[in-house]
């Protein structure tokens, strides 16, 4: 069974999806969530503890009281993707790494494009901070598809400088 809650953030309405114990998805747009939920039985529930904690931690993050999330996540992806997401999770609040930095960090220095694809497949943006991965030239590249404006908002929130 999957549950969800909406969260109104500085980015707009986010949707958090979970099992009864783990966060499975964070959708940055209602369109992404609507596409996901087609044919899936989801229950909107404000009492699921992990969703309540996720909302609390997002509030703290957006109010500059939290720099790191402490939630149980369910990762669905290839072993390579999971390795990338683990590495991306280590990027500190207020810092950015290039795709090359992430590739080197996982021991695959020639896998820069694959790093980008793994970030694109990240079902837990913000929680797994793929917004902190930018081009070597400090330019923004894709985020949640083509939503670089959302990446810019998150980086600005974390006082990170970048080039548009």
Structure notes:
The chain has helices at 30-37, 49-62, 79-88, 99-105, 112-120, 148-157; strands at 2-9, 12-18, 23-27, 42-44, 97-98, 133-134. By secondary structure, it is α/β, with parallel strands linked by helices. The chain has 2 domains: 2-62, Double Stranded RNA Binding Domain, CATH 3.30.160; 79-157, Winged helix-like DNA-binding domain superfamily/Winged helix DNA-binding domain (Arc Repressor Mutant, subunit A), CATH 1.10.10.10. The longest helix has 14 residues, at 49-62. The model has no long low-confidence stretch (mean pLDDT 93).
Q: How much helix is in the residues?
A: 25-40%
CATH superfamily of the largest domain: Winged helix-like DNA-binding domain superfamily/Winged helix DNA-binding domain
- CATH class of the largest domain, named Mainly Alpha
Structural Rg = 15 Å
Give the secondary structure arrangement, pairings included.
Blueprint: E1 2-9, E2 12-18, E3 23-27, H1 30-37, E4 42-44, H2 49-62, H3 79-88, E5 97-98, H4 99-105, H5 112-120, E6 133-134, H6 148-157
Parallel strand pairs: 1-4, 5-6
Antiparallel strand pairs: 1-2, 2-3
Keywords:
164 residues, 6 strands, alpha/beta, Double Stranded RNA Binding Domain, 16% strand, 4-stranded mixed sheet, Arc Repressor Mutant, subunit A, 2 domains
């Amino acid at each position: 069974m999957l549950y969800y809650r909406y969260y109104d953030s500085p980015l707009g309405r986010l949707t958090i999806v979970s099992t009864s114990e783990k966060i499975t998805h964070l959708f940055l747009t209602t369109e992404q969530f609507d596409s996901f939920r087609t044919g899936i039985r989801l229950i909107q529930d404000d009492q699921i503890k992990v969703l309540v904690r996720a909302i609390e931690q997002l509030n703290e993050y957006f109010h500059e009281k939290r720099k790191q999330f402490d939630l149980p996540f369910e990762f669905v992806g290839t072993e390579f993707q999971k390795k990338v997401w683990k590495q991306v999770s280590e990027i500190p609040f207020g810092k950015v790494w290039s795709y090359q930095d992430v590739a080197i960090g996982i021991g695959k220095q020639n896998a820069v494009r694959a790093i980008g694809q793994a970030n694109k497949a990240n079902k837990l943006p913000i929680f797994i901070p793929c917004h902190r991965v930018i081009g070597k030239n400090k330019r923004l590249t894709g985020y949640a598809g083509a939503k670089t404006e959302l990446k810019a908002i998150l980086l600005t929130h974390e006082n990170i400088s970048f080039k548009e």
